[in-house]
């Protein structure tokens, strides 16, 4: 393991701690909430032109973008988009299950989809940057 990998692992752990803190641990408990219909938010956006929901979806894509960006640095290689997707969905599923169990948020498939997509986008961006620095496209 080199210094960059160690720094990236530390940054990933700190980042994920902040994400879990803001999405689960700092919220107050209420009632168990869940939305089990995939893409329900996009249906609402298209049907009702709900711009706040659109903004929330985009922010959910951005949420795990840094986690995906750190993956190639942690692995010390280009990471396949499928690997980043699995990582992002697993992290998001852990958040969503935590919210469901602790009754501190809305469990929804859409968040897992958007978070996974954001993780992929972050990974692809850093893969491209690595390719540029290594002289490959």
Radius of gyration from the CA trace?
16 Å
Beta fraction of the residues?
under 5%
Strand order of the largest sheet: 1-2
Structural class: mainly alpha
Question: How would a textbook summarize the main sheet?
Answer: 2 strands, parallel
- What is the tally of helical segments? 6
**Could you tell me how far the N terminus lies from the C terminus, measured between alpha carbons in angstroms?**
26 Å
- The total of beta strands comes to 2
Instruction: List the uncertain runs.
Output: none
Description:
With 137 residues, the chain is mainly alpha-helical. It is 75% helix and 4% strand. It is built from six helices and two strands; from the N terminus they run αβααααβα. Strands 1-2 form a two-stranded parallel ribbon. Helix 2 packs antiparallel against helix 3, helix 3 crosses helix 6 and helix 5 runs antiparallel to helix 6. The longest helix is centred in the C-terminal third of the chain and has 25 residues, at 109-133.
């Amino acid at each position: 393991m080199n210094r960059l990998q160690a720094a990236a692992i530390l940054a990933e752990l700190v980042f994920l701690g902040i994400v879990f803190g803001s999405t689960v641990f700092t919220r107050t408990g209420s009632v168990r909430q869940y939305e089990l219909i995939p893409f329900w938010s996009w249906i609402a956006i298209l049907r009702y032109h709900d711009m706040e929901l659109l903004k929330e979806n985009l922010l959910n894509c951005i949420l795990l973008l840094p986690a995906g960006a750190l993956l190639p640095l942690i692995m010390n290689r280009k990471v396949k988009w499928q690997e980043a997707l699995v990582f992002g969905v697993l992290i998001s599923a852990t958040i969503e299950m935590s919210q469901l169990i602790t009754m501190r948020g809305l469990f929804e498939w859409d968040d897992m989809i958007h978070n996974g997509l954001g993780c992929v986008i972050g990974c692809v961006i850093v893969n491209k940057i690595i390719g540029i620095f290594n002289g490959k496209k």
